[in-house]
UniProtKB/TrEMBL annotation:
Protein name per Swiss-Prot or TrEMBL: Antioxidant, AhpC/TSA family
The UniProt record lists the keyword DNA-binding: no
Native organism: Fusobacterium nucleatum
Signal peptide (from-to): 1-19
Domain Thioredoxin: 27-179
Highest taxon above the source species: Bacteria
Protein's UniProt keywords contain Signal: yes
Length: 182
């Protein structure tokens, strides 16, 4: 019992130190994140809660001007291919936030048209969802790029990485959620 309580407290402390919204934490320490309803570069609408029940979901928030993102995105593409291109148990999504006249304070420095070209030119084939209002970035309190969230099959946050990590670390984190040890 004491060990479970200690693990729960450490988990809570680790989340609070990274400024994840904890208003969605249940009595067991499980954190749910805000729903995402956005359209990707292919024109497909995604609803995080409705479309991916029972799946493990990795969400990677990135911006085109970030050197760490530029280094990490090819690794995300490789993992997207390795794990079945969202046709199996792992769903990989990116989230981008282009600037516009209506939303000049969004985090990227280029508009949607330029961002679509950037994604295509760099062959970022995994779905990148367009947060054109900046609402999703604000709800997820994104301050560092890239930021990666891995959500388990029950919809609970299991991994949060603030900043770039290696492909091997990403894969270890994915595996820990896909195949948890009991």
């Amino acid at each position: 019992m004491k060990k479970k309580l200690l693990i729960l407290l450490l988990f809570i402390l680790s989340l609070t130190s990274f400024a994840i919204p904890l208003n969605n934490m249940d009595k067991d320490g499980n954190v749910t994140l805000p729903n995402i309803e956005l359209v990707d570069q292919y024109g497909k609408k995604h609803n995080l809660q409705d479309d991916y029940k029972g799946k493990v979901v990795m969400i990677n928030f990135w911006v085109s001007w970030c050197s760490d993102c530029k280094g990490e995105m090819p690794k995300v593409v490789e993992l997207y291919k390795e794990y079945g291109e969202n046709k199996k148990d792992l769903i990989i999504l990116g989230v981008v936030t282009p600037v516009s006249k209506k939303y000049p304070n969004n985090k990227d420095r280029i508009d949607k048209k330029a961002l679509l070209k950037y994604i295509a030119d760099n062959k970022y084939i995994f779905p990148s969802l367009f947060d054109e209002t900046g609402k999703t970035y604000a709800e997820y309190e994104i301050e560092k790029y890239p930021s990666t969230f891995i959500i388990d099959r029950n919809g609970y946050l299991k991994v949060y990485v603030k900043g770039a990590i290696s492909k091997e670390e990403l894969k270890q984190n994915i595996e820990s959620v896909l195949n948890p040890k009991k």
